[in-house]
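Fold this complex.
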Amino acid sequence: GENVEQHPSTLSVQEGDSAVIKCTYSDSASNYFPWYKQELGKGPQLIIDIRSNVGEKKDQRIAVTLNKTAKHFSLHITETQPEDSAVYFCAASFYFGSGTKLNVKP
Amino acid sequence: DAGVIQSPRHEVTEMGQEVTLRCKPISGHNSLFWYRQTMMRGLELLIYFNNNVPIDDSGMPEDRFSAKMPNASFSTLKIQPSEPRDSAVYFCASSQGGGARGTGELFFGEGSRLTVL
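Structure:
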């Protein structure tokens, strides 16, 4: 199956700074790349996704980029807020990366 | 919409006992997924169904694990016999648009936390 790698595993930023999480995937046939946010005690929830025919997508403070040639994609969160603190997962279709614990310090 | 419903939310059992986890997907969704989450291994895909048929069960750890989907509104994940290393949070998720290249958002339940003593 697909192999998704995600970095970093933990990320600590100051409120207002930007946060970047990077992922790579192995199967060149993958064409759907969602990002999920998981808060404590809950299941992951989709925050943004990108399909292979698009290189970049933005939704307010969140943006994702996709490089199909290099098989990597990234999540960018700008102007981080304490409520952004959570675990973030990238995925290729329904195969998940290992997660990034983001801590936004007030 | 009620969302994906999982039961039980918490289960504590003794090694060797049978455990059955249940999931009701969102009505109209044709794909259902079982995941296991641990600190060490992250979010592992165990098995997924499309139109009630198991498509890929390569993530099922061993023969002690089995999953069924007798109809579009119900699925079970069974562990028999359970072992302490099975302790984890088990998530069920459903989606529209499955098949080999799932391209739809996954909607997760709140998970079943299993502790095997």
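The interface with chain B takes residues 1, 29-32, 34, 36, 41-46, 49, 51, 89, 93-99 of chain A (CB under 8 Å).
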